[in-house]
Amino acid sequence: MQLLTEQMKKILPALYSQDKVEDPLVVVKYFTPDSSWTWYIIEGSEQIDGDWMFFAKVISHICPEGELGYVMLSELEQVKGALGLPVERDLYFVQKLLSQCK
Questions:
Q1: Cα 36 to the center of its chain, rounded Å
Q2: How far apart are CA 44 and CA 27, in angstroms?
Q3: Are 12 and 30 in contact (CB under 8 A)?
Q4: pLDDT, tens only, 47-72
Q5: Were both Cys, which of 24, 46, 77, 101 would link to 18 (CB 3.0–4.6 Å)?
Q6: What pTM was estimated for this model as a whole?
């Protein structure tokens, strides 16, 4: 599965563009189908090396309330869940405010 499509690149807010927004818009959701990890992508920008850096809220069994931070697309592409399944993009996710992502 392609995690970042050309269409998504066009609609993804640039890094730091929502810094002053109290409740930013989440554009993409990634998850591990065989584990408890979820990444709610808020912003992203292409880096000099062609990789993408995302700012996201990450939720897992380690931090169920979630934590904000940065993750690279290349890192997401390498993550495997408990049964060895790769990260997937939620095809049915509808953009929503961060406060609505539980």
A1: 14
A2: 10
A3: no
A4: 999 999 999 999 988 888 889 999 99
A5: 24
A6: 0.94
